[in-house]
Design brief:
The complex is a heterodimer. Chain A is α/β, with parallel strands linked by helices. Chain A contains 14 helices and 16 strands. In chain A, the strands form five sheets. Chain A has an eight-stranded parallel beta sheet with strand order 5-15-14-12-11-8-7-6. Chain A has a two-stranded antiparallel sheet with strand order 1-13. A two-stranded antiparallel sheet of chain A has the order 2-16. Chain B is an alpha/beta fold. The interface between A and B is medium-sized, with 30 and 39 residues.
């Protein structure tokens, strides 16, 4: 090639000083504050794609994908509750508030729960009567803000979630930007119209594990020991937090990994707080097994669940169910533009503007979310049957292999091919010769 | 009147026993030997006067809906949390976070109380005849808190709605963020007069000021402290030890 035709290298920066880094600095240089963003972290994190499921062959027989049954009915919260929650698929709809979502989106999600027989969580800020009327089973969150929460909530809850943290912004509280605090939301949450809400960070009625034990007794008494009570915790110090949750006396734990979504979160929190769901789930299961509590405590995995493979792998690790949030929004039409915090959403999902809300066809959205859950369940069932399981819950860790050294080190699940285990095996005998 | 001896009953059965007596139409129930039992009178609904002859533990009269509960001694933390309606009368002192998240009803503390009284309260009335600790009415969303004695620091921090009445002469130095001190209206004076008369409190409503939430503009947060914009090079004096 001649010197004239040779192209000058662009030296485009792909590492530290890339365009996003420059834009982040520009933002701070302009406004002198941290940035808020909707949805989940865009960072690449270890996830269930790093695991593979082993199919049944000669050692165990696969089930016929198209002609044999695989049970998906799921029972949650049977440790102490007299009326455990029974749902038809191990996929629940996570708590997303009326405020972060439009009324239409909340109703669509509730209707979807009835179409597939699952449970929906109300999220922060009270419960919409329309959600309650349309949901198959209703989970009610007991949050630190207690906005819109009264004794009535305890009476119609099929499940309670005492919320200690959320994966998208662990250690922080609910953020709802002023543009979303309309007259209606203001009435439900009992806060002024248009104010930026940074809700209560810690529960005002339980300041530590010892108090929480007594608080749990109070909630049990108020619900006559009927309703399963879960603790929702963000994945951080999983081992220690799980032990405390068991001590508090919960029926189950919702473990929210750092890939979880939200209506608005400081970028710093979403990108740098907490740990990913997959390794967190392994730690949670190991801890429960060490305590001899695995069969008593229901475990719901949430934060970044996208498809039936995620469901199958989470269940194989030891979850009893999963919760979906962002995925359900995508099914309704969300394109993950990450601008939920602005209050505008052309799809009528993350908005309170009347003209935008009209863009969401409630019944069509409900059907799409229901289809999404049906499809995910079918995917998980397909994988389970291929692994020779007649019940989805029979998926087990022995059916899993890691695709990378990093994953085997994080999870204790053997590496594909070599069955090499790095570190503490997750029920597998180490084959590392170290 | 019926008597219950809490010393010979399991704490998990106590409220059921009270509730059963209320269902039988008994209007006055006395509980003795409470010995700081937790969760006393939780969730009781109906119309009755329940007197507890000594002190109670945590969460007394939480989620109360209708009855009047009188504690002759002290009450532990979180008394009256999430209360819906009715009255909780504490004759002596109360711990922290009393009246957290109450939706309605009235709590009267004849002694003093710890920090965060009325935390996140959404309605109802809390009357503290003694002193209140710091962060009173923090992030309240409704209702009214009345403190006859002195208040602690950061009172009313980030209230969204509701009102705090105080006659503490130093209150302006103790205000939390996003609230302001205001004079009270004639209606509010009448409200206080009625409240003081009803509960036999010797105080003059005229001396009271109101702490109200800033409803316009945006809340200011300590996240943005220190304000890194007020430094003067000329006044800079290097020292070996930095006081924190």
């Amino acid at each position: 090639m001649s010197e004239e035709r040779m192209k000058e290298p662009s030296d485009s920066v792909k590492a530290l000083w890339n365009k996003d880094t420059l834009a982040e600095i520009d933002y701070k240089a302009t406004y002198g504050k941290h940035r808020i963003r909707g949805c989940a972290t865009p960072r690449q994190m270890p996830n269930f794609d790093d695991l593979m499921i082993l199919p049944g062959q000669l050692t165990r027989m696969p089930l016929d994908t198209y002609r044999e049954d695989c049970e998906t009915r799921t029972v949650l919260g049977k440790r102490f509750a007299k009326k455990p929650l029974i749902i038809e698929t191990p996929i629940m709809i996570a708590g997303m508030s009326y405020g972060a979502l439009s009324k239409e989106a909340k109703i669509a999600l509730a209707k979807a729960s009835s179409l597939v027989g699952t449970v929906i969580s109300n999220g922060e800020g009270g419960i919409l009567p329309e959600e309650l009327a349309n949901s198959y089973r209703q989970s009610i969150q007991v949050l630190a803000s207690r906005m819109g929460f009264t004794k009535r909530n305890l009476e119609y809850a099929d499940m309670l979630e005492v919320l200690y943290g959320i994966g998208a912004k662990p250690g922080l509280s609910g953020h709802l930007m002023g543009s979303k605090i309309t007259e209606d939301i203001s009435k439900m949450r009992q806060i002024p119209v248009g104010i930026d809400l940074h809700s209560h960070p810690r529960s005002g009625d339980a300041f530590g594990a010892d108090d929480m034990v007594i608080k749990m007794e109070q909630l049990r008494e108020l619900t006559n020991w009927n309703v399963p009570i879960f603790a929702k915790i963000a994945a951080g110090r999983v081992r220690e937090d799980i032990k405390i949750a068991v001590k508090i006396g919960v029926d189950g734990i919702i473990l929210d990994g750092c890939q979880a979504g939200t209506g608005a979160a400081p970028v710093m929190a979403a990108d740098h707080l907490g740990i990913p769901l997959m390794p967190a789930l392994v730690q949670a299961v190991m801890t429960l097994e060490e305590m001899g509590m695995k069969d008593e405590i229901s475990l719901i995995a949430s934060g970044g669940i996208r498809n039936g493979a995620d469901v199958a792998k989470a269940l194989a690790i030891g979850a009893d169910a999963v919760a979906i949030g962002t995925g359900a929004m995508v099914a309704m039409g969300c394109r993950v533009c990450m601008k939920c915090h602005t209050g505008h959403c052309a799809f009528g999902i993350g908005t309170q503007h009347e003209d935008e809300r009209k863009n969401l066809d409630v019944d069509a959205a409900a059907e799409r979310v229901a289809n999404y859950i049906r499809g995910m369940t079918a995917e998980a069932v397909l994988l389970a049957k291929a692994a020779g399981k007649s019940k989805l819950k029979n998926l087990e860790r022995e059916d899993l292999r890691s695709l990378s050294l990093e994953t085997t080190a994080m999870t204790g699940i053997p590496l594909v091919g070599s069955d090499f285990v790095l570190g503490k095996g997750f029920g597998f005998t180490a084959n590392n010769n170290i | 009147m019926e008597h219950i001896d809490a010393a010979i009953i399991e704490s998990s059965k106590l409220n059921l026993s009270i509730s059963n007596l209320m269902k039988q139409g008994i209007k006055e129930i006395t509980v003795k030997n409470a010995h700081s039992m937790h969760n006393m009178c939780v969730g009781l609904t109906g119309d009755a006067l329940i007197s507890i002859t000594d002190s109670t533990g945590l969460y007394t009269a939480s989620f109360l809906e209708g009855p009047k509960v009188v504690i002759e001694g002290n009450a532990g933390w979180y008394a009256g949390d999430d209360m819906m309606d009715g009255e909780l009368i504490i004759k002596n002192n109360a711990g922290c976070n009393v009246g957290a998240y109450i939706n309605g009803g009235t709590i009267v503390i004849y002694g003093s109380t710890g920090s965060r009284v009325g935390y996140g309260m959404k309605g109802g009335t809390i009357l503290v005849c003694g002193n209140a600790g710091r962060w009173a009415a923090q992030m309240a969303m409704g209702g009214s808190l009345v403190v006859i004695g002195t208040v602690g620091n950061l009172i009313g921090e980030s209230m969204y709605r509701g009102i705090v009445f105080t006659q503490d002469p130093d209150v302006s130095a103790k205000l939390g963020g996003n609230v302001f001190l205001d004079s009270i209206t004639e209606e509010e004076k009448t409200y206080l007069t009625d409240l003081f008369t009803k509960y036999g409190v010797d105080a003059d409503p005229v001396r009271f000021s109101a702490i109200r939430p800033a409803l316009t503009g945006r809340h200011k947060y300590v996240l943005f402290k220190p304000e890194l914009n007020k430094f003067d090079k000329k006044n800079y004096q290097p020292t070996k030890e930095v006081e924190v």
